[in-house]
C-alpha cells in the first residue's frame, strides 16, 4: 500500500465520513425546526402568530 493510499484510507475517508455525518445531522436539525414552525402556524387558525416573527 502506498503512502497516498494509506492516507486516503485511514485519514481522509474517516474525516470525510465524519464531516458528512455532521452535515447530515445539521440538515436534519434544521429540517425539524422548520417542520416545528409549520406545525405552530397550522395550529394557529386565527393568525395570531405572524409568519415574519
Automatic annotation (TrEMBL):
Superkingdom per UniProt: Bacteria
Protein name: Uncharacterized protein
Organism: Cardiobacterium hominis (strain ATCC 15826 / DSM 8339 / NCTC 10426 / 6573)
Amino acid at each position: 500500500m502506498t503512502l497516498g493510499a494509506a492516507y486516503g484510507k485511514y485519514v481522509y475517508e474517516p474525516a470525510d465520513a465524519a464531516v458528512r455525518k455532521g452535515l447530515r445531522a445539521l440538515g436534519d436539525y434544521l429540517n425539524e425546526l422548520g417542520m416545528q414552525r409549520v406545525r405552530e402556524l397550522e395550529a394557529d387558525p386565527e393568525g395570531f402568530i405572524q409568519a415574519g416573527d
